Amino acid sequence: MHQLLRIAWIGILVTLIVQILNRAGREDMAMLTTVAGLAIVLMLVVTLVAELLTNVQSIFGLY
């Protein structure tokens, strides 16, 4: 649950920064901020999926 809240806060923060950068006319930096936020969230999601698969593996006694 903690990781999901972290992902939500990253999304809110990135959205806020992108809006500010777009209003300032820095669309290129806004796009880089979006890509950086996406990369961070994807890394968090990969760890969550790995943890899920480990739990499923231990529950069902797979290898």
What does this 3D model show about the protein?
By secondary structure, this protein is mainly alpha-helical. The chain has one domain. Helix 1 packs antiparallel against helix 2. The protein is elongated and about 55 Å long. The two termini are 27 Å apart.
Key terms:
63 residues; mainly alpha; elongated
Q: What is the compact description of this entry?
A:
The chain has 63 residues and is mostly helical. Helices cover 89% and strands 0% of the residues. It has one domain (2-60).
Give the N-to-C terminal Cα separation. 27 Å
Tally of alpha and pi helices: 2
Strand content: under 5%
Low-confidence sequence ranges = none
**Strand tally, please?**
0
Number of domains: 1
Structural class: mainly alpha
Topology pattern, helix = H, strand = E: HH
SSE blueprint and pairings:
Elements: H1 2-23, H2 27-60
Helix pairs in contact: 1-2
